[in-house]
Amino acid sequence: MLIISASRRTDIPAFYSEWFFNRLKEGYVLVRNPLNYQQVSKISLQKDVVDCIVFWTKNPENMMDSIGQLQGYNYYFQFTLNPYDSTIERNVPDKARIISCFQKLAETIGRKRVIWRYDPIILSKDLDEEYHYYNFALLADKLKDHTEKCIISYLDFYKKIKGAVNALQLQPISMSRKSIIAKKFKIIADNYGLQLEMCGEEEDFQEVGIKRSRCIDDRLISEFLGRQVIIKKDKGQRKVCNCVASIDIGSYNTCKHGCCYCYANNHQSQIEIKTQQYDKNAPLLCSTLSPEDRVYERKTESYISKQEAFFTNYY
Question: N or C: which end of the chain has fewer CB within 10 A?
Fold first, then answer.
């Protein structure tokens, strides 16, 4: 099954939606292997091949006027909306504006296709538990009629964010503290009729009624498609990640939100270099092909077409 992730590596809806829609028109996209720079995959974006597109974003304003171009595709949004100011999320617009965008998106495509992420939960002297309880409830009240689910997770202390962690005095979160926060979040979510799930944590929170999430979710995709599909777990993700297999079409070091907790950017100078290469008409995102590159056409086929062929041949 071909599922397109757009994208864990950058915010395509916020910054590169015009490029994305141009790729849909062209029917394919080129993607560099982040572990082997000269290796480039050619991925089909034809409607009869792509079974679902999963968008990851903090601000899809720029693609709202073009959302009709997704007609014929199955898709949904993982929409991160946190209560942080520009100290934490440097270039994310005013949250009242983002809340309005969230609501408008859900009204346009349906609340089931817009999943709210409160992610990550960060603790510091100024961002304590009570700060999160208050703001989670505030956001839940505004979003309860525009989504069915909220996914939460705790800050991962990646090496690349060590400077920000020290500068902002962000605090590690013990298991006991995580459990207390999760239990309170569950109570709040229940009060607003929201399903709460946990993303990417080694600890098990099912004892407080919170299941592990599948952000790229074969169950949800099956519901959209109107038939059950079974897809293997994504081997390229962490062991604690339950997402099913997908192909990410983004590029690292291209997100301009400037969040202090970001794992997808290394340094501001690299972002500036890469984003200068942005061409809305190019097959690669923020990159150009060179003679040294090796382009491979990635064999892709809709899982549904294979499944239907199997049953046709069987009977």
Answer: C
- Does residue 83 have a cis bond before it (omega within 30 degrees)? no
Which residue segments constitute the domains of the chain, with CATH numbers given? 2-314 (3.80.30.30)
Sheet strands (E) in 202-283: 211-212, 247-248
Residue 249 to residues 11, 61, 309, Cα–Cα distance (Å): 11, 20, 28
- Cβ neighbors of 262 (< 8 A, separation 6 or more) are 161, 255
pLDDT in tens, 10-32: 999 999 999 999 999 999 999 99
φ/ψ of residue 125, rounded to 5: -60, -40
DSSP for residue 213: P
The Cα 132–Cα 110 span in angstroms is 27
| Nearest residue to 157 via CA among 171, 167, 168 | 171
Residue with tokens 């974003």: 57
In the chain the first and final C-alpha atoms are separated, in Å, by: 22
pTM over cut 0.90:
yes
Angle at 267 between CA 167 and CA 213, to 5 degrees: 80
Residue type, 131: Y
Residue count (the chain): 315
Dump pLDDT digits (tens) for 31-40: 999 999 999 9
Task: Select from 224, 192, 199, 255 the least CA-distant residue to 9.
Answer: 255
* Region for residue 105 given its phi and psi (left: phi exceeds 0; alpha: psi -120 to 50; beta: otherwise): alpha
* Distance of alpha carbon 293 from alpha carbon 276, whole angstroms: 20
Nearest to 247 by CA among 107, 92, 42, 100: 42
